[in-house]
Every structure is written in C-alpha cells, then in structure tokens.
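Support reply, case 0932

Customer input (verbatim):
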Amino acid sequence: MDDQRLIVIGLCIVIALGVAFALFAPQAPAPTLDGAVAELKRACVAACSNDGSASVHVRTPAGAQLYTTDEAVCARLGDRLSCGRCPCRVEPGNASISPDGEYACAFTTGENGTRMACDVTVRQ
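Our regenerated output:
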C-alpha cells in the first residue's frame, strides 16, 4: 500500500513539474507588422546599398499582406498598415498571403530598381 502511494505521489510531482515548466518556459514573441516591416526594410537597404541582393525570413500576424510601393516595403492586416522606406526605387508588387504568416523574401536590384519576391513558407 505504501509503495502505491509513493508511485502516485511521484507521478503527481512529475506532472506538476511538467505543467510548471510549460507555463514558465520562455516563449517566442508574437509576430507584429512593425517587426516584419523592420526585417524587410533591413534587407531592402542591404540590397540597395551593398551587393544588389539580400534575403530574409519574415513572420507576420496570420493573414497579413506584404507588398511594395515605389519607395517602401509594407505590411497590411485589415485596417492596420506598417511601411518602411527603402533608400532606392522599389518595383511595386504584392506577395501571396500566407495563412500562417511565414514568408521567405529576396530582394534583388536591377536596372528598374529593387524587386521584392516572397514565397510563402510552410511550417513542418
């Protein structure tokens, strides 16, 4: 009888420690439009000023739309908008909407300015 109690108490302690670890373990911050645009802007600046190309992996809130205007990279989610200016001309364009907010983007600079191409990435 005492062995059974010790086993039950031990299991309860292991479960409690697991729950406590899950609750207090550091978690990745939720992606934001401003954070995504800051990453895109860094890559755009690098493509404009350095070797003519740069790539970046970007996380946005689910359903956000990435796009470019003549002078900026932007992200829109509903009525929220965030944009960052690039130091060179950017070809206007849109990326496909990622359902989970994961993109792999590449910037290349050519005769007509810098172009952003984003592929939707899928979590495995």
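We compared this against your earlier run and they match. Two observations from our side: The two ends are 47 Å apart (CA to CA). The CA atoms of residues 33 and 80 lie 8 Å apart. Please reopen the case if you see a mismatch on your end.
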